[in-house]
Amino acid sequence: MSVEQPLWRALAGYRVLTMLYAIGLFASAHDRYDQPWVALAYFAVLFGWTLATLPRVNNAASCTKRFLAVDLTVALTGILLTPLADSHHVAEGGPTLPSIWTAGSVLAFAIKGGWRWAAFASTIVACANLVERGVPARDTVHNVILVWVASIGIGYVVEVARASERTLARALEIEAATRERERLARDIHDGVLQVLAMVQRRGAVIGGEAAELGRMAGEQEAALRTLVSGGLVPVPRVSEDAGEGAVVLRAAAEQDDTVDPTAPVDLRTLLAPYAGARVSLAEPGAPVPLPSGAARELAAAVGAALDNVREHAGPDARAWILVEDEPDAVVVTVRDDGPGIPEGRLAQAEGEGRLGVVQSIRGRLRDLGGSAELSSVPGQGTEVELNVPKNARKTRGKAERR
């Protein structure tokens, strides 16, 4: 049920009760009116209009702008006819013909359109009351301010209620989608994922073409696990028929130069292509925004680190990518289970002109104002920690292609 529906029902009841109240006031003092027939004619219209328009104040759809305009006109007409029906009563500070029924007309504006519509309607009613009185008496100003404040307050409450209703509806949709995802994940885990895992294991045992088939099944299993767990899905990978290795198309690291380097992008989308059967990606559940140029360079540095894993640790080595979104920086750690780097090997490689770590990794991070820390223990693998400040700006061309 709509959270504002009770307000419409309350408004309908208010209009009927205040209409009867206004008629009762006239009946109790009809002998004091200068021209009671004017009041009788107005109350006949008010009685018929209030009862006939009850369906109009059942919901926001039926309470149209045209109805609101006519309803407010009925209230204003009653206010302005009051001096004609009883000039002495007005001079003594008595109520207008519609009395507090007028507030119901203003409240209809508030429930329909919020506090702005309420302010518009209550201002018009205030002007009509001042014209009817002739002078801004204390009681008139008091009543005008009361209606104005009350209608605006109710209009604001209605807007908050509608926003809350939309939020609740969205939360229910997310809950339903989450339940459906969990149900599908259970079904997939019990069937498809187990079959893919079995194909991967059997292919590795049989060897030959079956080994390649098993490797592809392993990649699809990793992608499917990422999908059912709600993460980002790695892009498809293309394998060469010749040779033992596979050529991975890293489209995320080869962005167009026309992209604004300062525009924020989600780093997770650039790192997702690197995930696979032997590369695990652990990422936050929320987006990790970085300037586009800095994100591409960081993703390229991760790719260079994975290239080193394949080249030096072997095609069977496993690697793990961990993304951490800290308040002032983004930290990406790449770790492998290879044999590690012998002491002095990096300095030797740099002396031989092999600048993979120096340029492809540390050079990129230095240009971003960040840092790259490499630690390795022989026999225990290698770990590369890439730290990039969130205010990094990268404006030069594409990342180096390897």
Automatic annotation (TrEMBL):
Annotated ranges, domain Histidine kinase/HSP90-like ATPase: 295-390
Positions in coiled-coil regions: none
Biased composition (Basic residues): 391-402
Any GO MF annotation of the entry: protein dimerization activity
Listed GO CC annotations: membrane
Region (Disordered): 370-402
SUPFAM superfamilies: ATPase domain of HSP90 chaperone/DNA topoisomerase II/histidine kinase
Pfam family, one: HATPase_c
InterPro entries: DUF5931, HATPase_C_sf, HATPase_dom, Sensor_HK_TwoCompSys, Sig_transdc_His_kin_sub3_dim/P
Annotated Gene3D superfamilies: 1.20.5.1930, Histidine kinase-like ATPase, C-terminal domain (3.30.565.10)
Transmembrane parts of this sequence: 12-30, 36-55, 67-85, 105-128, 140-158
Domain Signal transduction histidine kinase subgroup 3 dimerisation and phosphoacceptor: 180-230
UniProt cross-references to PANTHER family, sorted A to Z: NITRATE/NITRITE SENSOR PROTEIN NARX-RELATED (PTHR24421), OXYGEN SENSOR HISTIDINE KINASE NREB (PTHR24421:SF61)
Name of the protein in question: Histidine kinase
Protein's organism: Streptomyces brasiliensis
